[in-house]
Amino acid sequence: MNTLDAVRQLGEAIQKDERFLRYAKAKLDNDNNKELQDAIGEFNMVRMEIDRAMSTENQDDAKVKELNEKLRTLYTQIMSSSAMAEYNNAKAELDSMLNDINSVIMQCVDGADPATCEPEVHSCSGSCATCGGCG
């Protein structure tokens, strides 16, 4: 077996993992959620309106403020939906798994024993200023 074959086997294992399956389902559920997709579409339209309003020579500050408030309201609506919460949680779990996989691969590239190396553990202080990377 060559390296590419091993990577393909890893890809198959990832796609069978419950974290990937949860993420794929949440993504599909969001894609099929008309109310959520409409809100995301409206959010994108308002964001484009803000860009246009801010790029005019005689910027209407009141209009920009109004659009920013609308954008924040839409963002809160989108992010507080149960479908988006499930998606974000599932994505975080998948990202964690992928970080663990990448950690082991990088250790192997650095010469660690593939049979015994473990994913590096990272802890988060909440401050990105001192961050060494999420894990």
Explain this structure to me?
It is a single chain. The protein has helices at 3-16, 18-31, 34-55, 61-79, 82-109. The protein is built from 5 helices and no strands. The chain has 135 residues and is an all-alpha fold.
The SSE order reads HHHHH
Average predicted local confidence, pLDDT: 91
> Gyration radius, to the nearest Å?
21 Å
Q: What is the helix content?
A: over 70%
Indicate the low-confidence ranges by residue numbers: none
Query: What is the strand tally?
Result: 0
Number of helices: 5
Shape: elongated
Class from helix and strand fractions: mainly alpha
Main sheet attributes: strand count, strand direction, barrel closure: none
Distance between the termini: 30 Å
Q: Beta fraction of the residues?
A: under 5%
Features:
single chain; 135 residues
Write a concise synopsis of the structure shown:
With 135 residues, the protein is mostly helical. The protein has five helices and no strands.
Q: How are the secondary structure elements laid out?
A:
Layout: H1 3-16, H2 18-31, H3 34-55, H4 61-79, H5 82-109
Helix pairs in contact: 2-5, 3-4
